[in-house]
Amino acid sequence: MTPDDSNRIRAKQRARAMVMALLLGFLVVLIFFITLSKIRSGMH
Amino acid sequence: MSSIPSSVFVPADWRDFLALTKPRVMTLVVFTGLCGMLAAPVGVDPVIGFTAILCIALGAGAAGALNQWYEADLDALMKRTAKRPLPAGRMTRESALHFGVGLACFSVLLMGLAVNYVAAAILTVSILFYVLVYTVWLKRRTPQNIVIGGAAGAFPPLIGWAAATGEVALLPFLLFSLVFLWTPPHFWALALFVKTDYANAGVPMLPVVAGERVTRAQIGLYTIPMAIAAVAPWPLGLTGAIYGGIASVGTAIFAAYAAVVAFRHTRPDDAMKPEKRLFKYSILYLFLLFGALVVDRWA
After folding, report:
1. Residue B2: pLDDT above 60?
2. What value does the mean pLDDT take over residues B201-226?
3. Which domain holds residue B100?
4. What is the pLDDT of residues B155-177, one digit of tens each?
């Protein structure tokens, strides 16, 4: 495996890790807002 | 082409995982699910509504991924699908399986916990139906594959409605019937102009097994109950005149295009324009009807 190949694999791994981080961040925010909605509907 | 030796593990690109979910198919699924939700007689909390649509999209994506996992060998034989991540060798089958199962479980769990269990149950049935009944059982065995399998794509309006109301009613069942009966003419129009692809892959699509004449007749026949299901909500008093008018005109155009396809014969070097026109219009038709349903409900 050449250094170029190694760099390409690393770039792919970095991109996947970034997308995964964004998705997990989105999920945290979504669950926060779902919780707020559930609390609000429980109060009515 | 990659110069990386085959023994080196190359992780799949995130775009390949996205492609695995069949985003274009998902568009129609999300749209019909959203319309089913918006057509319901009760309002839904925007966050819960968004979550429900997200779960429908993720469930459809999971079903698409599992379909591609199971059909990698078939996809490799067809020009239309040969560039997908699995047949093109950009992803291992194991990755696709884990991704599909994980996404399916996540979508159902989230739907159950955040929305309601009725919607989660229907979502589970729709995923299992698409993967087990259509992909594994029917697709390679019978030319009726897309007739029965069409039910899988008909669930989203039912799920959307159930997400809003927690139950199912006559209107979402009619919407289910509409998509179910729309699927055969839609897919057989496609199958008529990509017949060679299906034949090469050994998929028993109706034009391959029974011939063009039978397929054309079946397109015409299925259009009749589809038209009834499309217009029925209006005389039954479940929708207003906006939906009734748009559904009547849209269905009349669909029936006219279908009739042209049903009564013609393929000539040598035929460009299959009427079949392509029916296929394209059938997609627009479904968007039009579901859009009209929402406008009718909110106008």
Report:
1. no
2. 91
3. 13-166
4. 999 999 999 999 999 999 999 99
Helices (H), B129-240: 145-165, 170-193, 195-201, 206-209, 212-231
Chain A closest-CA separation from residue B13 CA (Å): 6
Q: Cα angle vertex B89, ends B187, B97, to 5°?
A: 70
Of B130, B146, B166, the one marking the end of a domain is: B166
- Judgement on whether residues B162 and B200 belong to the same structural domain of the protein: no
Residues B145 and B235 in one domain: no
Smallest Cβ distance to A1: which of B4, B11, B45?
Answer: B4
Would you state the pLDDT for residue A43?
67
**CA separation, residue B193 to residues B180, B188, B221, B272 (Å):** 22, 9, 19, 6
Considering the entire predicted model, what is its pTM?
0.89
Number of domains chain B is built from = 2
Q: What is the CA radius of gyration of chain A?
A: 19
- Please list every residue in chain B whose beta carbon sits closer than 8 Å to the beta carbon of residue A9: 4, 8, 10-11
How confident is the model at residue B3, as a pLDDT? 47
A12 touches chain B (CB under 8 A): yes
CB contact under 8 A, B8 and A34: no
**pLDDT category of residue B1 using cuts at 50, 70 and 90:** very low
Rounded CA gap, B97 and B1, in Å?
26
Interface test with B, best of A37, A38, A40, A44 (most B CBs within 10 A): A37
* Domain final residue pick, B124, B142, B166: B166
How many A×B Cβ pairs under 8 Å? 40
Averaged pLDDT for residues B25-45? 93
Provide ipTM, 2 decimals: 0.89
